[in-house]
Design a protein that fits this description.
Blueprint lengths: L2 H13 L11 H27 L4 H33 L3 H35 L4 H31 L2
Helix pairs in contact: 1-3, 2-3, 2-5, 3-4, 3-5, 4-5
């Protein structure tokens, strides 16, 4: 079992217990972030497969590689946020939960930076390889997921601000 699967198993096991009534986050919050993290990871794997299957120019492969790396970066950031949300949802002690929520605030700040950088990077690679439809398709699919993630981060950030006041 890989380390990330092991960590996911632990987080989901923690969620199986009932969290305190005043928890900032719920299991549903964690599941939404898990879903987007999984979809980002699948999109990144899909790009890897496209890189292996493409018989186009080396430039196309390089562009796909650049998009892949940008996607992997944001996937890691979103996965870290998901794990902290899941942990916060399972906390029974308010002081412990506040520590996790504070860590989540830092994690989401890094996620926002990663998403901004990802969007710019992908657009750059798509422009460089505008002749390759596979680059445009894979890049746009990832940008759509980044946009969806951005919409999720806003409400979570508001919950954090409200909790850390």
């Amino acid at each position: 079992m890989s380390l990330s699967r092991f960590a996911a198993t632990i987080v989901l096991a923690l969620l199986s217990g009932a969290a305190s009534a005043e928890s900032t986050f719920t299991r549903a919050d964690a599941e939404r972030f898990h879903s987007i993290a999984t979809r980002l990871a699948v999109a990144t794997v899909d790009i890897t497969q496209a890189m292996r299957q493409t018989t186009a120019s080396p430039q196309t492969t390089n562009c796909l590689s650049g998009i892949h790396d940008a996607g992997a970066s944001v996937t890691e950031s979103v996965t870290a946020a998901w794990r902290l949300i899941a942990l916060a949802a399972s906390m029974r002690d308010e002081a412990d939960e506040l520590l996790v929520v504070a860590a989540l605030a830092d994690s989401l700040a890094a996620t926002n930076v990663a998403m901004t950088g990802t969007r710019q990077t992908i657009n750059g690679w798509m422009g460089l390889c505008s002749f390759a439809p596979i680059v445009a398709a894979k890049g746009q699919a990832l940008i759509n997921l980044v946009s969806e993630t951005e919409q999720m981060v806003g409400p979570v950030s508001q919950k954090i601000r409200g909790r850390l006041k």
